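It would be a great kindness if you could assist me with a short task in structural biology. A protein sequence and the structure tokens that stand for its backbone fold form the material at issue. I should value your view on which stretches of the chain appear to form regular backbone elements. The record follows directly beneath this note.
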Amino acid sequence: MTFPLPHGLPGLFIALEGGDGAGKSTQAALLCRALEGSGRAVVRTREPGGTPIGEKLRSLVLEHGHGEIDARTEALLFAASRAAHVQQVIVPALERGDVVVCDRYIDSSVAYQGAGRGLDPQAVLDVNLWATNGLRPDLTVLLDVDPAEGRTRRTSGAAAEDRLESEPDGFHASIRAAFLELAQEEPERYLVLAATGSPQDLHRAILEALTGVTA
């Protein structure tokens, strides 16, 4: 796999995408550990969040108890968090030559607020491209998970589901289909992996895709 390095900055930008319960956090941790072990400077971050204002916005859109949030407001809150994240964290890291490993990015908004909430996916994409000044990842790893399997994983522990996680399986099925469609439209930017694989097998597949790029 080759990468277009669309941002023209010396660093490498990797986004992990997929439905809730796909194992993104696990793979982010494994990838960062491996990259740091090879001597690379790594910034691990997440969306929504990554900055003080982003973490406040994260609580508004994901925690229960903040009242009704309509689809457009939800989409704009995610975009606002992302704008701060790119400006304050991601671009400075890429300018330093670091590897940025981000748990979710623009494609999550296109899938969740576009397909999931029924907004125009192109409009969601456009507002996020404006918010980020067009910054796109070098590689997007899509961990594809069946909605029922994702819910089983999310509810196996003590943690309660957040606002989006607690949506019905039909909502999550729409999101899964949207992610797969995005990957089909831009195969050069995506690595699609079935999340049913073992964490170590998935980790090896991601490292193999990055061979030569992180050297």
Remarks:
- The first helix runs from residue 24 to 37.
